Structures are given as structure tokens and as C-alpha cells.
Amino acid sequence: MDKTEKKYYKKDIKYFNFEISNSELDTLQNIKNILNNIDYIESKGFQIKGRYILKRSQSDNRQKVVGQLNESNFFFFSENVYPFKSGTNYFDNSTLVDPNYIHYVKESKQSESTDFDVSFEQYFEVTKQDSVFTNWLNETTKKLLNKDSENYFDLRGVYSGYMENAVCFPFIDFDGNFVTAQIIKYDSKGSRIKSQFSQNWFHSYKNIKTSLELESKYSVPVKCFFGENYLKDSSNIVAIVEAPKTASILKEVYPNIDWLATAGESQISNKDLSVLEDRTVVLFPDAHTTKWTEFAAENNFYCSNILDVADVPKGQDIADHIFDDTSTIYSKLHDQLQAVSEGIIDTVDSLNELEFNFKVVGEAQDYFTIVSPNYKGKNVLLSIDNAKDFEVSFTDKLFAIYKKEQCEAEGKLQGYEVYSSQIDWHRPVVENGGFRQMNEQEFVFTLQGCFRILKELNPKIYLDVFRLSLDRFKESNFSFNKDYVLASLVPKWDNHSRDLSVFKKVRDWKFLGKQSLTRKEFIKELHNSRYRANLSIKANAFNDVLGENRFIDIETDLLIKSNYNTFKKLTNLAKEWNEFVIGAKTYKSYVSKEKITRCTKNAAAHISSSIYTASKNVQSNFNYSKIAEITGIKNRNTIKTFLEFEPNMQIAERIKNDIFFIIENIRDAEPVRQLIGRKGIIDFDIKIADLKDSSVFSQALGLKDAFITLKQAKNLLKRNKKQYNPKQLQALEDEINYLEFLEMLSDIPTKKRGEIMNDQSQRNQLIEKGAKAPVELEVKINTVVPLMVSNY
Known about the structure:
By secondary structure, the protein is an alpha+beta fold. The protein has a five-stranded antiparallel sheet with strand order 3-4-5-6-7, with helices on one face. A four-stranded antiparallel sheet has the order 9-10-11-12. A hairpin with a 2-residue loop joins β27 and β28 (434-436). α11 (440-457) runs antiparallel to α12 (462-470), α11 (440-457) crosses α13 and α16 (568-582) runs antiparallel to α20.
């Protein structure tokens, strides 16, 4: 939001600085909610000043910043904030600690004292004017700036001991009270000496304490910034760096900037931010760090990324480049600092309007995601869908395939809708018959979708999860400026009202597997599942035609195209059925045969009504000529062949058994792929693995013991159900179904049994009538989407 759009709400003598949109300004209820939120926090003993939460210290009775307000929550930096918890809290009482909770108060060690009270005058008396560092700084300013060092921060040196000639960086708070000083050793070139005994604190160094006649050990929390005392009567732009050394050097070069230092990267979170209220603040973090960028975004500060270039080693700060005219950032650095010094905020704003610097840096094709399903012990909701409203038509070990009628209309995929933050960032984009990586525009759009879906599904933790997730891109094919995303894009996305439907995906499948797959494996297995779903349609259609005992038209009955046949086993079985059971190789021959069938069925009573007669001769009063006249078939051999045809019942039974076997084991069907020429699936194979882990299925049995009764089979299922694997259970259940069927047949006359065994419809009628748990010998036809490349 533009800074001119900030609104201030007055409540008694308190002001609440809160960023809201123009549309929200028109809603009186939003204003009421904001004021209620202030009352909620203040009713617990805190005070709101601007966007900061203050609490009065019991030790010195001063009000100190302990947290800050956000749009949908409030955050405490401190731990002693009873009855709230440290970290993120909400306005609905959900984050209040248990009433029996004993709130945490950090206790000093028994031997340490917290009443360290030394004045600035005493600091001055027990230290000396010069040090190795101040001498170096003075020589440097003389040489490069043609002036003596001003020593703006009252740096001093150590008189004696192992820290002799080390520099003292004094920490003086907003009101001018001396707190302590950081003591650091530097060499004659201005470089820090890194050894075990190169750093200490004023309140801890024995020689200084002796000079002050202090004997206790002290614990001194440093809540103020280095240089904070310059803020009181100043309106300059504030620049914050990590090291007091850096602030001391930069103050000599750009004195019209109020330079502050934290004395450590993580220490910025422990400082009293109330001293920065209503000030323009720019952070200059060390090179290639992210913590301060995030901190700046949370606190509405500006943050420079001038050091985040490949030429600058990690850990360097701007002091390493301020005097080095060979540095690649030398000119740009001085341009930025000069603008800050002159109070030109638009130029400073351009620091935050960082360049995205998007690049494709890799060609990895592995499945790559960035969002973890867990964050600090909490589950992260990654996606949501409406799949429960759609019907599954086929399921195997890895995928569920949804019904074609619901998933395809007018040539467009109409499956269930998915909103997912778990993006496969390495998924190639199909273009002009080839593949490429995402471009910058596609990447930003997809990243926005990831962020906004995370926000929708995880409203309390989405920002933290997203920031952490961005770090995963270091291992990806893409390189970009994370600071730009956090500082420029996230605020826009966070307040965007764009319809989320633009980020939805439509699917006709759902992954059921528990193990992760590579993209290549995933695509292959999805194609396999779709193939099995299609195979299920065609096998069940085949089974229906068998029940009708007629010619099988491969293209219309089985929906198998002749020019691209990927179901050769089915087509071969269909051809075999037509030739040896129906007696017609082609549909044209079948039509001719049907004409003869109709002709003979209309004959006189003494003429056989069956076209499958084995008779060598036709009655003289219904001769070949008469049949030819009626049917239009002139070839006498053709007529004779049709009349004398006898179906091969063994082949018919085998084909029925084969189709039944395919339907029952469809989930074990493995597509067979052609690797030479036109690559792709050409057929399928079903290999049933040997059943194991049970003596019932694995032991060699004698003829007498090889068969069990229906009662024995049911007892086995009841006693050992949990011990069998799915394949064994299926085998045992099939055996029980078969034995129940035989038991029903035993009550039917022998002659009738033969008719039932040869007629599938009669078999099913018998089962439906007599079985307690009907056995479905004919599985319902399932419908699924044809094979296609999905938008996984």
C-alpha cells in the first residue's frame, strides 16, 4: 500500500496506525473491529502506541516495546507477555495460555547482578582516547576524505589487559543513558582480529570493573541500538547496519544519515523499536542474508539488496566497499547513500523495488516442489478439491479414474476441481511439439497461485510457510531475487481480490500411491492406469456381447479403432469368436448368414429351425434356389457353408473364461509397449504372481485334500482373514462363490443344469435368486476418459 494511504484512528489519546484498503475505509464495521482489537489487547495490561505493543518494565518502570500489530494478528518479540504467548497471537482467545500457566521470566544466574549502573562520565574516565581502530579510522579519513575523524559515537580504547588497545563501541539509549560498550580488537588495517579473546563487554571486562571498583558479575540486556542517542532531536533518515564498526565508518562519510547498529544479525529482533516510530528506516543487511529482508517487510521498513550480487562474498557489509573504488557496486552504493543523505525517499524506495532477476539456471526434470506439509509441528494444508462430488469409474493400485460423462464435455476436460499450492516447478511446458521451462511471466503467475492458495488454506501461518518455502528454490532450475518477491510481490498478492478460480486445476484422476515417483514414472503409471480403465470398458463390453451370442463388431462394440489397435488380445479373441462360434469372419458375412437364419426360421414345420444343423441335405421343398431367391445370396457354397456350420463350444467356453479372467484381474494388467518404430502401447499382459504366505495356497496337496467343502472354505475365511494378503483373500472368496453356485445347481434337474451352464443370463438369474451374497459374474461396465496427456 502506498504510504499516503495510511490512516490514523484516534481513540482517546491513543493513535493506531493501521494499513487498510480504500474499500475497507467505507466499511464502518472494519473500523469497529480494529478498535475492538485494541481494547482486547489493552484489557490485558498492555498499551498500544502506533502499531507497537508496549509493556511497562517492573525493573525501571519504563514502557518498552514487546510486540506489534498486524492486520489479522499481533506478534510478541518478548517472552514475558502473560496472558499471551511469545510469537503470533490472534484476537479470538485461541492463543491465550492456560490460566494455570506460570509465565516465563528470565532469571539471571544466581551469581550475576542486573543493577549495572555506570554513567557516561565513568565510561569516559576508565577508557583512553585512542585505540588501534580509531587510529586506523582517523588515518583513513585523512587520506580519503581530507579530514580528521569526527568520532561521532565517542569511541574509546582499553587501557590494559588482554584487550589493551581494543576499541569500545558505547551503547547509549534514546535518553542519553550509558548502557554498556562492546569491546573488539582490530588490527592496524581496520580488520577485526578473529581469535578466542578478541571480544568482550564493558560490564564484563575485569580490568575495567577493577577501575570502577565493581566486584559483581553483571547481566546487562542491550535493548537499545548502537547510535540510538542521535535519534532524539533528529529528523534524518535512519540507516541500520549490523556492526558498530560499519556505522562508525559510514557516519564519517555520510553524517546526515542517522546510523544505527545492532551488534549482530539476530539482535535486531531484540531492540526497542518504539524509538523508530514515525521515522523513515532503511536496513543495509550483510551480503546474501534473508532475515533482515523479512524483518523489514514485517515492520514497514525499506531494505537494500545492493550487496546481493555474485561478486560480493557472503558476510561482507557496505563498509567493505565504501572506500574500494574497484568494487563493482562502488558507484551504485554511493548513489544510494547520497540519495538517503539528501532525504530523497523515492530513490530509497527504488531500493525496495528490487529487480526480480529471474533466470533459468538448470535443466533438471525431476519432480520438484517447495512447500513442506509440516511447519513447526503444525500440519500445512496443501490442497483442496471437490472430488467427492464425482464418481470413480476405475481404481488400481496408484490411481482413481473418474467417469467420462462427468469429466468430458464438448471436447473439454470437465473433471473435479483442485486448488493446490504443491506445484511441480520442473514440469516442462509443451510448446510447438517440444518442451521448455517456465518463462518469467508463467513463473510469477504460478508463484502467486501457490501463495494465495496457501493463504486461503492456512490463514494463520501462510506467510511464515511461504517465506520458508522460497528457500527451496536454491535447489531448483530457477534463480531469482527472493527479496523482490517478499518486498514487492507478496504485499500485492496479500491484498489481492482476484478470483482464485484462475489457479484451479481440473483432473479426471487422483493419485492414491504413498511412495513418491519421478515425473517419468508418474506419467508412465498414469498412462498405465488410464489404459487399464479403457481395457475395463472394452472387456466388459466384450462380455456383454458374449451374453447376446452374436457377431462382435470390433469398432462399434468394443470401440477399438482398426488403424491404431492397442488391445490386440481382445481383437484376436473377438476374431476367434466370430469365426469359430458365430461362423462369420466379417460383418458382411454375418449379415448374409443372418438372412439365411431368418429364411430357415420362417420355413415349414418339417424344416429344422436351427441354422446350426449338421444335416448334409436341405428338404427338397426348400432347396438352395429358394434360399438364394429369398436371401439374394447366389453362391451355393456360401449357403451350404452357413447351413452346415456348427459352433465350436470348446472355443466359446475358453473365450468366455479368458474375458472373465481379464475382467477379474484387470488391475494386474501391464501394458506392453513397442520400443521400435511407432512407440507406444500395443497390447497388455496379465501375470498373476504366485500366492504365498499361506499353507492353503502354497502347499502341494493330494487329490483328496486338494478340494475343500463350502463350510471349510467359510471357516478358513473367518479364522484367517487378517493373515491373508489381498490376492489370497480374492482367491478364497472366489472359491466360496463357486461352491455356493454348485450347491444351488445340485437342486436343479440334470437336464436343466446343462442349459444354465451354457447360458450366462440364466446363470446370473439363478445366482441373484438364490445367493445370500450375489456373485457378480458380469461386472458393471465402467466408463473413463480415454487415454490423454493430463495436466498433472
